[in-house]
Design goal:
Blueprint lengths: L1 H9 L9 E6 L2 E4 L15 E3 L5 E2 L8 H10 L5 E5 L2 H8 L21 E2 L7 H10 L5 E4 L3 E6 L2 H24 L7 H11 L11
Parallel strand pairs: 6-7
Antiparallel strand pairs: 1-2, 1-5, 2-3, 3-4, 5-8, 7-8
Helix pairs in contact: 2-4, 3-5
This protein binds zinc ion.
The site of zinc ion has 7 residues, from loops.
Amino acid sequence: MITTARRMNTSGLNQGTSGNLSQRVEDGFLLTPTGMDYDALVPEDIVLMRFDGSHEGRRAPSSEWRFHRDILARRPEVGAVLHAHSMFCTTLACLRRGIPSFHYMVTTAGGADIRCAPYATFGTEELSHHAVEALEGRKACLLANHGMLALGKDLAGVFKLAVEVETLAAMYWRALQVGEPVLLDAEEMGRVIEKFKTYGQQPALKG
Ligand SMILES: [Zn+2]
């Protein structure tokens, strides 16, 4: 948890202490504490939370514990959730623009686009509701005037996806500076989604 949280800083995903990270465990989930510098974190600072919203440990959980809880409760395939105010995702989110099918790699977030959830005040049930809805059939979304969310089966997967989504946001933003990017059609995005099901899988070694 701490290693991944620190990688959020060094990779530039995090701006200040704004990000947070959770990981499913047997009887609930682990969550980063509120307002703490990740460089100073020790294991005892990580908060153990239950799905009823109660928590254990010496620190108060991230103020965004609700969307971590609700996503992990509704998406059994998800083992880790990452939230950040990364520069380019947040820039697009402030324009209330999602990321459309401008590049085939958008499918790494699960579908033909990455949605932008409507705005609600941070830490609220309403924001959590919007996030869960925008993540329907997806592994990432933007949060209007706020930031981004990525889902993964584990910490390594969620970190990798968050970096990919931020990279796509940066590319889309840059393309928008020059003109209106050409979008790939639904048929092509469907083809890419099919292709990715076997992409990167090495054949079994012979002999
Ligand atoms: Zn936030």
